[in-house]
Amino acid sequence: MGFIETYNECEKTAIGKSTFTERKIFSPFTHNLVNDPTRIASISELPYFVCTMHNQRAETTVNKLLNGLTEEEADILRSIVRKVSEVSSDWGIKTAPFSSVLRHLYQRRLIRYLLPDGRNFLEIGPGSGYLSLMLALDGKAVCNTDVTQAYYIFQHYLYDSFGLLSEFASTNTGLLPEGGNQAIAGKVNHLPWWIYKDLPAHAIAVDVIIVNHAICEMHAMAVQHLLAIASRLGYPKFFMESTGLDSVSLTFEEVKSKFLGYGYSLTYSKNDVYVFEHEKNSSRGRAVIFAKRLVDRLARLIPFITEFKKEFQRLKSELSAIKRQLTGRVPEHGSVFQPNPVCYDDVLRLYEQILGERNFMSLDEEFLDRVKAG
């Protein structure tokens, strides 16, 4: 039995043991909403998940967000592009990641810049999975989980091709032993949703939870569950590069309110990049939460303050959404990083050296280009 069949059998068993609400929140909520493909039936479909999302953002990511790649980052990119192009040939179509892997390089850079002490990571919804791959290549202990079958299966084969896979999807019980870190450093510890949903206290060591391009798109109960998981894991920090589309499920103001309810406050917010820290681990967090509780007490004493708060938060959320639409979510102040030597033209030459194509595009970008040309 291949891994796709194994995963499907385990998932079928897990669904049969899940409550109504669990079935609702551990499903690809936003992907279903926008009609994204969420399931595959054979390995021959894997090439179509090599580079998804972030289409046509490569130049912006390299020149504006990263301000050029370092030589070390170019080496990482080269090794991933070369390996994926080789294994995708075995799957039936030779291709490579482009916009998505470059965005994940940007996320890796941000994590090293903002959270340099992070050693143990849990990534929620890694998509094509290159960020977790890079962190594992850095020697970090990485766990991740994805509710979307197609992505999860692609991630499995990706990590396995690099020899970095520690797969838990064949575990049918849905439970990890409580206590004692189960995560292996230098590996991607791949957790299916049915294990993640019942993750015991301290089953894995986690310093940072990563939720990129997703938090506002997650089902409200899925966010609540994530915060409950964080409390079991000792309140690690949260890192987010983009909140996802504001108001698909939640506004970012609603997200911040939920986080505040669990003792988390926003300690970094710039260029659509966010870090949340728990009050017990952050003096600034304690101050923000104290101020919020003070305002709540005043609101109970002065009734009109509650309505003012609601109207203010509504207007703030609407202005934020309009700003993101107008700017295309590109940082208005440019990169936070100093210039680096490898520019976008150098990246194109790197792809040409490996793949023999000067103007390389992912399979989705090729399709979009044909539609535009037509």
Describe it for me?
- Helix 5 (71-91) packs parallel to helix 14.
- Helix content is 49%, strand content 10%.
- It has an eight-stranded mixed β-sheet with strand order 3-4-2-1-5-6-8-7, with helices on both faces.
- It is an alpha/beta fold and 374 residues long.
- It has helices at residues 3-16, 20-25, 29-33, 58-65, 71-91, 99-114, 130-137, 149-161, 193-196, 220-232, 252-261, 283-301, 304-327, 344-355, 363-373; strands at residues 120-124, 141-145, 165-167, 188-190, 208-210, 237-241, 264-270, 273-278.
Rg (C-alpha, Å): 21 Å
Assign a percent range to the helix content.
40-55%
Low-confidence stretches: 324-333
Strand segment count = 8
Distance between the termini: 43 Å
Q: How are strands sequenced across the largest beta sheet?
A: 3-4-2-1-5-6-8-7
* Distinct helical segment count: 15
Shape: globular
Structural class: alpha/beta
- Biggest sheet descriptor: 8 strands, mixed
Tell me the β content.
5-15%
Lay out the secondary structure.
Blueprint (H helix, E strand, L loop, with lengths): L2 H14 L3 H6 L3 H5 L24 H8 L5 H21 L7 H16 L5 E5 L5 H8 L3 E5 L3 H13 L3 E3 L20 E3 L2 H4 L11 E3 L9 H13 L4 E5 L10 H10 L2 E7 L2 E6 L4 H19 L2 H24 L16 H12 L7 H11 L1
Parallel strand pairs: 1-2, 1-5, 2-4, 3-4, 5-6
Antiparallel strand pairs: 6-8, 7-8
Helix pairs in contact: 4-6, 5-14, 6-7
